[in-house]
Amino acid sequence: MTKAELVERVARDTLLTKKHAELVVNTVFDSIVESLRDGDKIELRGFGSFRLRYRGPRIGRNPKTGARVEVPPKRIPYFKPGKDLRELLNDRG
Which residue(s) pair with 49 in the sheet? Predict the structure, then answer.
């Protein structure tokens, strides 16, 4: 599902205009990004949680030349699905 398809579904299910639905979707996404940027964890009960994982600096290799390259530290977003979501996805009944 693309962001446009998500906006379309929110608009249809909530009877909002597409413009208002897009504002809702963008606000949710922006809030998640802002919280992660601030180092906070986002927990959506029954759905899952977003958090950051830290990757320290390391020495890598350029695959083309084989030269050593310093890879800087970075923060990687990580999503962990909640129990309810896992059960819904794995329900075969």
Answer: 43, 80
pLDDT for position 1: 94
pLDDT in tens, 21-36: 999 999 999 999 999 9
User: Structure pTM?
Assistant: 0.77
Question: How far is Cα 93 from Cα 85, in angstroms, rounded to an integer?
Answer: 15
Q: How far apart are CA 77 and CA 41, in angstroms?
A: 10
The Cα 30–Cα 47 span in angstroms is 18
∠19-41-52 over CA atoms, to 5°? 100
Provide the token pair at 63: 């695959």
Burial environment of residue 5 by CB neighbours within 10 A (0 to 12, 13 to 18, 19 or more) = exposed
Long-range contacts of 50-53 (CB under 8 A, 24+ apart): 50/77, 50/78, 50/79, 51/77, 51/78, 51/80, 52/76, 52/77, 52/78, 53/78
